[in-house]
Amino acid sequence: MALLRVDFYSEYLKRNVVLTAVIPVDKMDGDKRAKKRRGPYRTVYLLHGLFGQDVDWIDKTHVVETAEARDVALIMPSGEDGLYLNKPEINEWHGKFISEELITITRQLFPLSAKREDTALAGISIGAYTALINGMLRPDRFGSIIMLSGAFMRDRILDAVDSHSPRKRKYYERFFGDLDTVIGTEKDYVALAERFESEPDLPKPNFYVACGLHDNLCENNREVVKLLRDTGFDVTYWEPGIGGHEWPFWNAWIDCALDWFAPGEMRPTTAGGDYTALTSLRAPGKPIPMTGEDPSNL
CA-to-CA distance for 290 and 243, rounded, in angstroms? Predict the structure, then answer.
């Protein structure tokens, strides 16, 4: 694998941006170098969480080893506040940067597959919300969307709109812009999901969703899974009985998500809990329930 740090000027963001790329150009086999791999490679674009950075994935998970076993390229942009959303009212186009410019630039730089079925957009926490929004805005580019412990913010935005607290409203406007313009627009995943019902010719991305039962966002994730299934999307949902809103959970379940996207060798987890033992329950079709409510019946 080749690990690269890339710095380039973004036309959409009007500044230089950085990303980390992991490209499976070769593979070490003991003391010998295996035959070089040439691509085009299946690709996962990984989005971090709130106030994170691109190298979080390198520092806090072993996703590189898992991707290497599958010949999958990883592209990790640095999102600063964790959201890549368009804010046309202030001429900011972070969403278009992710779904258009980043895809174009990385495919020019590296031998990445241009097929939508070979391209996934993934995120944790608020990055999962961002992956959901941008993935549904560009289903022609992203064939798969991976969401781990998603912080799906629609209801919080509605609460902030109705709140009498200027501080609460101002906090959310920092990320979403004018809150009165969010519901029913491209920042609203309910509206985006329903668009696929009114436009049946749109290609539908497949979803992989996982959230631990002890995560305070668990119910929120169940609601989004139900929304997606009700509007005709194929959703693989896992709700393990261990794991909270934490990197040990994401370390293990990004492995499981990559195994769903590009089946291959599973690596033993370095997390404190034995998450990967749960993946032995994999089966065709809808996953069996792990704990709590039966996700297949949501």
Answer: 12
CATH code 3.40.50.1820 for 2-297: yes
Phi, psi dihedral angles at 79 (to 5 degrees): -100, 5
What are the tokens at 294? 């039966």
Structure tokens at 14: 């009007």
- Please state, in angstroms and as integers, the Cα–Cα distance from residue 109 to each residue in 33, 75, 81, 181, following that order: 24, 12, 26, 36
Strand order in the sheet with 235-238: 2-10, 15-23, 72-77, 42-47, 119-124, 144-148, 206-210, 235-238
DSSP codes of every residue in 140-185: TT-SEEEEES----HHHHHHHHH-S-HHHHHHHHHHHS-GGGTTTS
Q: How many CA atoms lie within 13 A of 215 on its CB side?
A: 28
Q: Where are the beta strands (DSSP E) in the chain?
A: 2-10, 15-23, 28-29, 32-33, 42-47, 72-77, 86-87, 92-93, 119-124, 144-148, 206-210, 235-238
Residue type, 173: E
Instruction: Write down the pTM of the prediction.
Output: 0.86
Per the prediction, the chain carries an average pLDDT of 83
Question: pLDDT value at position 138?
Answer: 95
Residue 265 scores a pLDDT above 90? no
The domain ranges of the chain are 2-297
| Token pair belonging to 180 | 């009165």
- Which residue do the tokens 């031998």 mark? 111
User: Is 260 in contact with 285 (CB distance < 8 Å)?
Assistant: no
